[in-house]
Amino acid sequence: MATMEEIQKAVEMGDMDKVNDLLDSYLLSGDPDEQFGLSEWLGEIGFVEEAIKVLEHLEFLFPEESQLKIDRANLLIEADREDEALNLLMEVPKDDEYYPQALVTLADLFQLQGLLEAAENRLNEAIGLLPDEPLLMQAKAELLLDSGRYLESAKIYQDLKRDGVEIEGVNLSERLAEVYSAGAAYEEALPYYEEALEDQIKPDVLFGAAVAAFQTRQYDRAVKRLDELTVLDPDYFSAYLLKAQSLNMAEDYKAAYEAIKEGIRRDEFDKELYLFAGKLAMKLGDTEEGVENLRQAVALDPEYMEAIYTLVSYFHTEERADDVLELAEAVVASGDDWAGLYPMIAEAYERTEQYEKAASYFELAYPAFRDDTDFLAKYMRFLIEEGKRERALELLKELQVLEPENQEWHDLQHTLE
Q1: Which tens digit of pLDDT belongs to each residue from 211-231?
Q2: Comparing C-alpha atoms, which of 8, 44, 41 is closest to residue 23?
Q3: Which of 49, 80, 157, 350 has the fewest Cβ atoms surrounding its Cβ within 10 A?
Q4: Between vectors from CA 301 to CA 295 and to CA 303, what angle results, nearest 5°?
């Protein structure tokens, strides 16, 4: 007869053929209580199908045990066998003591499928059966959070906190902070973050508190929490960008740049750090270092629109047409929609006297920029220079609609006509 220890050893060796052979033997003669423990262990270490097999055997032995159905349904959900899980859960009778638990599992399944109203109905039914069970109220609060009903979720957590309810593994202050933050109610979130930190200092809670402080323009407070965070966990990479952003908003640009450089030293593959470093360097007047940081961001992600647009805009402002074209032509060739770059590409071609290409990009830009008077004026003047007066007149009439009080457009109309 196979033993549980032999199965565990085979699992640890990764010999799946032996695992299944031993499992078949063990299920024929093993103790049911031990078999149930084996199913739990297999499920915990990711051997879901094997755990399901054990529970199927136990259900055959004890067909009236609804707990076995619920446990197997949870594993079936994990194995993406949701229809089987649904059928199992529907077999649990309403007068069964485990029926509320089946309702909770059904709610989890419906929530996973995006059927939030159906999930809420099952939870409400379970709460009606067990109105004093805090775990059910917490489950509903999390469902409401997932549904975007932040105030209703917060109300449940506030009631639980007011009543002094304790839920194992759950810090109610922390949950309230996160619910309010999810709903962008950062003022309300901050005091709950502080309460949670008084109970236990955790990296994610420190970061959440810093985000809430940043969003409420308390930049010094955000920096303080982020400094605590990076001491606790120097590799919490998101902290460096937020610290730099906080210092930037506080107009301490040098300190912001030092913070972002420290972030890059910690994580040299984060394109967002290089983008912000590029913007800060330019703000500090070190344009070449700014360009180098922006180029590094683009090197990490050749289709990083914000970095590309920032870099192209700088080259465009500095009238570095060749640099504009070198960068922009490469990304436009990728085939994606880069309409935001088209006006600058058009002007770069015009500056380098490649007029046919300039005309092509002006026209490509037109649908997205037809309400932009600066673009229309530049395009119109280009057309006049190229002798395309009929098309120039069309754009001029659009300018007159957008700026009816601008006498220049009326004077120019007489000239063109």
Answers
A1: 999 999 999 999 999 999 999
A2: 8
A3: 80
A4: 95
